[in-house]
Structure formats: C-alpha cells, structure tokens
Write a structure and sequence with these properties.
Strand content: over 45%
CATH superfamily of the largest domain: Conserved domain protein
CATH architecture of the largest domain: Sandwich
Structural class: mainly beta
Number of helices: 6
Shape: elongated
Number of strands: 29
Helix content: 10-25%
Distance between the termini: 15 Å
Oligomer: single chain
C-alpha cells in the first residue's frame, strides 16, 4: 500500500502535466443533461462525470482549474471560529447578507470546505432592542445548499451569542460540495408565528482554491476478522474539519452494535465525534488530526459484537444471585418458579449480552421443551454500582427444568486489533 506522501506526490506530478479546457463547466453540464432520466441518480451521475473529466483533462489544456489546487498541501485545522480560520490563512470570505421581513439580518461571513464537509459561518442580527431567543433556534432553519454538481443537505451546526443579546454567531455544516461549483445557493427559511414559511435563497461566489484546503485520502484495503465475518476498512480521509474512515461489513448478519474503533496519531487518541452509514457500509467520524507531523497512524478495533457458542447445557439445579461464568461473560440464573402453566426462569446478564432465542429450550425429565414466551428486559440493581438486565423465560411443562439449552449469545467482545497506516517519517 502506498504511503500518504507517495499518493500526494503523484497528484502533484499529474497537476504539473494537465490543465482543463475553457468551457469545461458548460460541457459537463450539457453532458449531464443528456443522461437518461431513469439513470440520473446523483451519486452515479457525479461518478460518471468525474470519470469523463479525468479523460478530458488528459487530452486538452488551456488553464489550471482552481478546484484541483486544494489537494496538495497537508494541513490540520481544528477551529469553529471563522476569524481564527482566516488568521491561519484558510477559508473564503463571503460577507453576503439578506434582510428578513422584520428587519433581522442574516450574514454569510465565510466558508471552508473539504472532501468531508462544507462548513458555513454566519451571523444573525436581530433588530435593535430585540433579543435572540431559544425560540429562534426553531424559527430559523438552513434547508439545503445547491450548485453545479452539488446538492448538499445540512448536517448540523452550533453557535453562541455574539457581541450583544441581539446577535447570534453560528456555523452550519453541509454535505461536501463539488469543487467545480462556481456559485452556491443556500436556502434560509423563517417560520412565522402564524405557521407561514418564508424562504430566502442566498447566492454567493464559491472560490474552491480559497475555501478548499488539502486532504489526506489514503486507500486502506485492510480488514479485521471478527466472530461472524469480516470488517473492511476501505479508506481514510483527513481534512481541516474532520477525519473520516469509511468501510463495509461482510458479516452473517448486520451487527446489533458497531463496537468501538479508535484512531491514534503518534500514539495519541483522536476524539471520535460520530458514526453512521447504511448496511453494509459504515462511516466513522473523528476530530481533525492534531498535527501535520505524523510519525504513526493507527486504527484499533477496540471492541465489536462477538459470539460465543454454548456447547454444554447450563444447570438449573441451584438458582441463586451468584453468577455463572460462560465463556468470557457471566449469566445469573436468578430463579426457577412453578406457575399455573409451567415454569418461569429468570435469567440476568449484562446490558449488551443477548442470548440466542431461536433454539432456546430446557431439558426436563428427558424432554426438550422450547421457550413459550420471553418478557421485556428490566434492570436488576446489584447495589454495588452495577446494573444487570433480567428477563423471564416461560416454558409450558409440568416437569421441573433441569438444564437450560441455548446455542450461544452475542456480546461486546474485546478484540484490540490494530491496523497501521503507512506514513513517510
């Protein structure tokens, strides 16, 4: 696998050799319009267009297209203040304002963008003498961001009071935008007290070579075997705003919980800020890399869903509040109680340990009796700082249960498996 620096050097050499033709945006837009309606899925269309773009660039050249400039300077940025972003030489000033019906002024101060996210910095100034309140968080909404090859939904944002109580200074993140967009339009929506919705589209020039800064995008093609399949880590993208790891699962079934993958730079853990994806794909989001002097870069699968197969029957002869060790976990057979319909067995376990239900049964007087019903889980406080979770398993039999028969259980298993990502020291 090539190191990050080797990939960046290849990109630099390619840039020195190629240029894009004039009228490129118009030609690409025309080509996109010719795609049949049924096939104009945005992701597929973008992939097709960018492939065509690569061929065009290799054939003809007139001027250097600014969208390519942001790939080649490795940086690390971790700031929510646009003033601080500009102080470090990053981001694009916008300073575009619109005035709402009641005199409130929305100002787009600037933007910064990369392959992971588009972040917009803005200010809302309420009319003099009017305070910005919690109600305004619901009243004001950013809906979408549009441009050439761009249709980005909002991902979330934050902010704080500004110079006085009438001002709010915030930032909003959107899905990544195309570096080939020349103009972007964000739609700001105001909901009035009478339920009326007013939209304010705000358009501004987008200068990719200013707003977009470098990334590290490294193909990983690494995998880790787990109990019921394989986790594949496909690539890592490190940008000024975040670090994202994408991959996919090859498992017998989609996991109940995704476990914990950690990222380390120079032995220091990078904070994880989110996770997502759609089966079988997953995405892990971390903070920006804390340094551009990278000596080591590691992914560690700390824990993930595990499966323990139970080969031996579990005795029900002496139920108590004492635990029974089964594999790496513990179970509590709390009680075996005769009822009008048969027997109830109360079993407790840790919160993220789940017994297989498909073939769960008991052995009683030589008979195998399947479970007839299972109650909702409920907490069991051990009064020592630990809370277990118990359920009642009911069986229709007149014979006293002797053994619990279960195929196995799922649980959070410690793996502690590492993937080292090559870097040029």
């Amino acid at each position: 696998m090539k190191t990050i620096e080797e990939n960046l050097e290849e990109y630099k050499q390619t840039l020195n050799r190629v240029q894009a033709p004039s009228g490129l945006e118009r030609r690409l837009r025309d080509a996109l319009q010719r795609v049949p309606t049924k096939k104009r899925n945005m992701n597929k269309a973008v992939a097709w267009i960018l492939s065509a773009l690569a061929a065009l660039i290799l054939m003809v050249g007139v001027y250097e297209y600014p969208a390519f400039a942001y790939y080649f300077n490795k940086v690390s940025l971790n700031s929510l203040s646009f003033a601080e972003v500009m102080e470090q030489g990053y981001g694009q000033k916008v300073n575009k304002s619109t005035t709402l019906k009641d005199g409130t002024v929305l100002t787009i101060n600037g933007v910064i963008a990369d392959d992971n996210v588009f972040r917009m910095y803005y200010t809302i100034d309420r009319p003099a003498g009017t305070e910005y309140t919690d109600h305004d968080f619901v009243r004001y909404v950013f809906e979408n961001l549009r441009g050439f090859l761009t249709g980005s939904s909002p991902l979330g944002g934050g902010g704080s009071p500004g110079k006085d109580k009438s001002q709010f200074v915030g930032d909003m993140e959107f899905e990544p935008v195309s570096p080939f967009s020349r103009t972007l339009t964000v739609t700001f929506t105001e909901w009035l007290d009478n339920g009326e919705k007013i939209s304010y589209p705000i358009s501004f020039d987008f200068e990719a070579n200013k707003a977009m800064k470098s990334i590290i995008k490294e193909d990983l093609s690494e995998s880790i075997a787990v109990d019921k399949g394989t986790i594949h880590y496909d690539y890592i993208t490190a940008s000024p705003t975040s670090t994202i790891v994408k991959g996919h699962y090859e498992l017998e079934e989609y996991p109940r919980f995704s476990g914990e993958t950690k990222l380390y730079v120079n032995g220091r853990e990078v904070g994880r800020t989110g996770a997502g994806g759609h089966n079988p794909d997953f995405q892990l989001k971390f903070d920006p890399l804390p340094t551009d002097n990278i000596q080591s870069l590691e992914l560690v699968l700390d824990n993930f869903e595990g499966y323990h197969k139970i080969n031996e029957p579990i005795s029900l002869a002496s139920p108590s509040d004492q635990s029974i060790k089964v594999g790496d976990e513990k179970l509590w057979i709390r009680s075996v109680t005769k009822t009008d319909k048969g027997y109830d067995i109360v079993i407790a376990r840790k919160q993220f340990t789940f017994l297989e239900k498909n073939n769960l049964s008991i052995q009683a007087s030589g008979h195998v009796v399947p479970v007839s019903s299972i109650s909702e889980e409920r907490p069991w406080d051990l009064k020592n700082g630990n809370i277990m979770w118990e359920q009642t398993y009911s069986f229709n039999t007149t014979h006293k249960p002797e053994f619990l028969l279960v195929d196995g259980f799922k649980y959070i298993k410690t793996y502690n498996k590492k993937i080292s990502i090559p870097v040029d020291k």
